[in-house]
UniProtKB/TrEMBL annotation:
This is ABC transporter permease. Residues 95-299 form the ABC transmembrane type-1 domain. The chain crosses the membrane at residues 99-119, 131-156, 176-199, 234-256, 284-306. InterPro entries: BPD_transp_1_N, MetI-like, MetI-like_sf. The lineage of its organism: Bacteria, Pseudomonadati, Pseudomonadota, Alphaproteobacteria, Rhodobacterales. Keywords: Cell membrane, Membrane, Transmembrane, Transmembrane helix, Transport. It is found in: Cell membrane. CDD domains: TM_PBP2 (cd06261). SUPFAM superfamilies: MetI-like (SSF161098). Belongs to the binding-protein-dependent transport system permease family. It is a multi-pass membrane protein. It comes from Paracoccus aurantius.
Length: 313
């Protein structure tokens, strides 16, 4: 097990190193000059050159990459060109919205998907199975931003139970939690539909194995065999989907953040791209990529916990 963990940690470190180089290179290749954008089209060349010197944009890209990477290793992500604010503070401030939102949506999707997937698998081919799978197909097909607007119309405008948008901050935890409920539901339901379908397929395949038939022959009911034996062995594809979904929920919730006016990390990246604030884009995207790589690492550890055979590789 320790050798497995060691190999995965080396792979994690290499992945982070490659990701930082790729992110820096891609952002550098994007057309447009941040200094010219900040000063406007009528700025004098001397003024643009002075601002480029002030921002360090006139230095060779390799030197700027080394400075950026060294700052990251020391915990300094640099300063925003536009807001003159430390990038680390901006990202941490936005993560206070995006991270709880992603966790809430993921937990909610799991809580919805697992009962649906298990019931559908245990009643394969019956009307209940068809009804549940039809519902999940609808959940996958519905655009989450359209569903989010329906939630706002129903629960915020008509029933007045939850806020329609905005985020009051964590000074009032109850108000902050209420502000994230509708966005979390809008994000969770399509993801729950995907997890439920994957879990059903994995369980159906597992229920056809010999050890399940042996368990049934020993007197276990279909539901008991499913919960005690089949579920654990069907978790590997589900863990893969969960890892991918958490990354999507953390980074890809920009549309939902705009629908509900949430100051999240996705919205920060969008604003930084439109303002050509390269240092914010690079650092924020690196944070997201780091989160994806760490989640992938945790999923690999989950594989080893579920399937002991992987620990000996």
């Amino acid at each position: 097990m320790y050798r497995y963990l060691f190999r995965r940690m080396i792979a994690l470190g290499l992945s982070l190193a490659v990701a930082s180089a790729v992110i820096f290179a891609v952002v550098e290749l994007v057309p447009g000059d941040p200094a010219s954008f900040m000063l406007g089209t009528g700025a004098q060349p001397e003024t643009v050159a002075a601002l480029r010197d002030q921002l360090g944009l006139d230095q060779p890209w390799l030197l700027r990459y080394a400075d950026w990477l060294g700052g990251i290793l020391s915990g300094d992500l640099g300063q925003s060109f536009t807001y003159k604010t430390p990038v680390a503070e901006m990202i941490l401030d936005r993560l206070q919205v995006s991270l709880p939102l992603a966790l809430m949506a993921l937990l909610l999707s799991v809580a919805i998907a697992f009962p649906i997937g298990m019931v559908a698998a245990s009643r394969r081919g019956r009307p209940t199975d068809s009804l549940l799978m039809g519902a999940t197909q609808i959940g996958i097909s519905l655009p989450n931003f359209w569903f989010a607007m329906l939630l706002v119309l129903l629960f915020a405008v008509r029933l007045r139970l939850l806020p329609a948008g905005g985020f009051p901050g964590w000074g009032d935890p109850a108000a902050a939690f209420r502000a994230l409920i509708l966005p979390a539901v809008a994000l969770a339901l399509p993801q729950a539909a995907i997890i439920a379908r994957v879990l059903r397929s994995a369980l159906i395949e597992t229920l056809g194995q010999d050890y399940i038939r042996t368990a049934r022959a020993k007197g276990l009911s279909r539901g008991q065999a499913l919960r005690r034996h089949a579920l654990r062995n069907a978790l590997i594809p589900v863990l893969t989907i969960l890892g991918m979904q958490f990354s999507f929920l953390l980074a890809g919730a920009i549309i939902i953040e705009n629908v509900f006016y949430l100051p999240g990390l996705g919205r920060l990246i969008f604003q930084a791209i439109t303002q050509r604030d390269l240092i914010v884009v690079q650092s924020a995207v690196l944070v997201l990529v780091t989160a994806v790589i760490i989640v992938t690492f945790l999923v690999d550890i989950g594989y080893a916990a579920v399937d002991p055979r992987l620990r000996r590789r």
